[in-house]
Amino acid sequence: MPQIKSILFDCDNTLVLSEELAFEACADLGNEIIASHGVTDRYTGPQLMVDFVGQNFRGIVSGLEKKYNFTLSDEEREKYVHMEEDRVIATLVAKAKPCVGANEALARTKGKYKVAVVSSSAYRRVLASVKKVDQLPEFFSEDEIFSAATSLPKPTTKPDPAIYNFACEKLGIKQNESVAVEDSKSGTLSAVRAGIWTIAYTGSYHDPAKAEEVGKMLMDNGAVIVMKHWDEFEEVLKKIEAM
User: Fold this and answer.
1) Bridge-partner residues for 197, per DSSP?
2) Cis preceding linkage at 159, omega within 30
3) pLDDT 10s digits, 45-103
4) What pLDDT sits at residue 189?
């Protein structure tokens, strides 16, 4: 590929260990929603994560509506989206930690590339996450955070490539000179469909067998290389430039 000029980072479980915390809060609210429509099933955080990893809460709600055959009004949907933001942000501010080695990798490469955070999650949630773990303002500015749920004229979620294309347009960068770092299928597909070279990050999966399985799955969906730990970051970038 051409020389890498820009790096676009997913947030949840890529830069910040936030996915499990967020899904616990999401599950509680999701259970309230489906219970109000007569559904007796109940989700735990891990169960919801299996079904909807990489999606924002608007996408999760849409999935629950389809699965259980009920329909929310636009007003109800927006009410729940804002409720989820508030609950998750409170949890993240209290408990979020950086992914192991992420801050060190950002420090080593600071100033070498144009960077941004590109997430499905709501802008307020991403902002709270990166502030909590000291990545903002040290490595990113508020103008370098892009949310599929908040930044776009029409909210969406990954795997729609719209948020990556929007970020590239706003930053004035070219997709084929950019690299994305993603940990989920939906995120990988979003970046790949935007024409961005994509790293499959598996460092947030504690079980080695699961990490290997996810890495293979992300490669099958268009990622070009697997990164098991942030210690490998610079070497992985060199390998991509040599492709």
Assistant:
1) 179
2) yes
3) 989 988 887 788 888 999 999 999 999 999 999 999 999 989 999 999 999 999 999 99
4) 98
Question: Rounded to 5 degrees, what are φ and ψ at 98?
Answer: -70, 150
Supply the pLDDT for residue 1.
Answer: 76
- Sign for the CA dihedral angle at 36, 156, 198, 14 comes to negative
Give me the residue label for tokens 């795997």: 159
pLDDT at 155: 93
**Spatial separation of the C-alpha atoms in residues 51 and 54, rounded to whole Å:** 10
Omega before 2 within 30 of 0, i.e. cis: no
Q: How many whole angstroms separate alpha carbon 82 and alpha carbon 67?
A: 22
Q: Is-contact 105 230, C-beta < 8 A?
A: yes
| Rounded distance between C-alpha atoms, residue 173 and residue 7, angstroms | 10
Q: Which residues pair with 116 in a beta bridge?
A: 8
- In angstroms, the CA 235 to CA 199 distance is 12
238 HSE (CA, 13 A, CB side): 5
pLDDT digits (tens, 9 = 90+) for 30-48: 999 999 999 999 999 989 9
Read out DSSP for 186-209?
HHHHHHHHTT-EEEEE-TT--SHH
Task: Decide: 179 and 197 in contact? Cβ < 8 Å.
Answer: yes
Q: Which of 213, 218, 210, 208 is nearest to 183 (CA)?
A: 218
